[in-house]
Amino acid sequence: MSPTLIDDLPEDAALLQQEVFGPIMPIVTYQNLDDAIAFINARPKALTLYIMSRSNANIERVLSRTSAGGSSINELLLGYANPGLPFGGVNNSGIGKSFGYHGFLEFSNERAVLRRRFLDLKMVFPPYPEKKVKLVRWLHRKL
Questions:
Q1: Residue 34: helix, strand or coil by DSSP?
Q2: Closest residue by Cα to residue 121 from 110, 107, 137, 132
Q3: Which of 37, 51, 43, 7 is nearest to 25 (CA)?
Q4: What is the pLDDT of residue 41?
Q5: Exposure string (b/e) for 76-101, b if CB count within 10 Å is 16 or more?
Q6: Which of 6, 55, 61, 89 could form a disulfide with 93 if both were Cys (CB 3.0 to 4.6 A apart)?
Q7: Using CA atoms, how far apart are residues 93 and 46, in angstroms rounded to an integer?
Q8: How far apart are CA 19 and CA 17, in angstroms?
Q9: pLDDT (tens digit, 9 = 90+) per residue, 7-54?
Q10: CA distance 1 to 3
């Protein structure tokens, strides 16, 4: 199938309700950047948000007011192809990240291990009798 651009879609068109995985791009026009941001935020979070702009102010505005699994600025393919960047969605667009360090963390199970080797720390935990409270206040003044 050849790449296809489609415009003049009604807002409830299926093509605007689901992520598109194919050579089809719906075109939605807007009058100002706030309208575009509102359009993005009115839908489920995207797997990737592509921003095409020469204005750093507009780029930062879009990035700070929207959410997506990833964002590419003035680029279409290298975000996915870079193994150093995490790739993945957020909410319904996919859970978790893959690739590189972030993928390793995502598919690993980090386990915290705490081992006390000395001292009885019962005094750290409640209940706090007046004797403990006085001791802590005294230590606080000295430190």
A1: helix
A2: 132
A3: 7
A4: 93
A5: eeebeeeeebbbbbbeebeeebebee
A6: 89
A7: 6
A8: 7
A9: 999 988 988 887 777 789 899 999 999 999 999 999 888 878 889 999
A10: 7
